[in-house]
User: Fold this.
Amino acid sequence: MQSIMTMGEILVEIMAERKGQSFRAPGPLAGPYASGAPAIFIDQVARLGHPAAIIGCVGDDDFGWLNIDRLRRDGVDTSAIAVCKGAVTGSAFVTYRDSGERDFIFNITNSASAQLQPEQVNQAVLKDCAHFHVMGSSLFSFRIIDAMKKAIEIVKAQGGTVSFDPNVRKEMLRIPEMREALAYILEFTDIFLPSGHEVTQLARSADEAGAIAEIFARGVREIVVKRGADGCSYFSADERIDLDALPVDVADPTGAGDCFGATFIACRRMGKTALQSLRYANAAGALAVASKGPMEGTSGFAGLDALLAQQPQHLR
Ligand code: ADP
Assistant:
């Protein structure tokens, strides 16, 4: 029982080559790239040399095999990815505004990822799982939510820990059952990894400090807040650490939060301190934004150490 595992959407991303380019007319494209928030997350865990596995579904098509091949090559155990006949692998098409903001056309809710069954989740599949990570983006059907709850219960019963990156689309939060599901997952969460604007989403308090106190009162042990180009913050019962972002040229923000979270959790599981883990996570997020392509910015310790070595104030 030593693996980090996650579950959810596995898809490809196809990107417009140029800023300002729209999909209303043909134009140069990049990709397909392996993608999906849980897939990016678990690839980053494996790149750090930590045992890693993902539960999911892909279609029996090039997009699905592109993902399986890539994850396997980076060291992820893909044995719990079901290859579904009769469903296609999901896709995301991305354009970039001149401001750098992204627009997405998703095909996920009708894709193989939506075929994920609670039956795929059982003690045999999770027997090596010491830590299970939940991505809010994966919770787009009640069947998937049931599967996620089942996984959390099995992992907790065998003494494992759980992390949760809420990453939920705003319109989903308006569905009462979705809020209930998120509250349920938070009850079992050891490490909570919200983006800055998400800290107050699952709390009654409208300010960050109040929300953080509430979340600790629910049993969460560590909270790591991702603040994009403003860096990140770590909170535990008796410690707060804030780090500035590392200066990098931004090529593509997709995947930064996933690489950040994966690195923080893998480092904690490898026995690194909160400060060391946060520094590595901050570097992993920076390397992710500096690379074009959702999973193309995942990195091993050599790359993270090299970036940190250029920024001595971020080392200890
Ligand atoms: P999410 O997409 O989950 O909201 P963020 O955009 O906050 O995640 O990115 C996660 C982390 O990646 C940040 O906390 C920071 O450490 C790093 N990061 C993000 N954007 C930048 C940037 N422009 N420059 C340097 N580091 C960044």
Summary: The first strand starts at residue 3 and ends at 7. The pocket of adenosine-5'-diphosphate is lined by residues 195, 226-229, 231-232, 245-246, 248, 250, 253, 256-257, 260, 282, 285-286, 289 (CB under 6 Å).
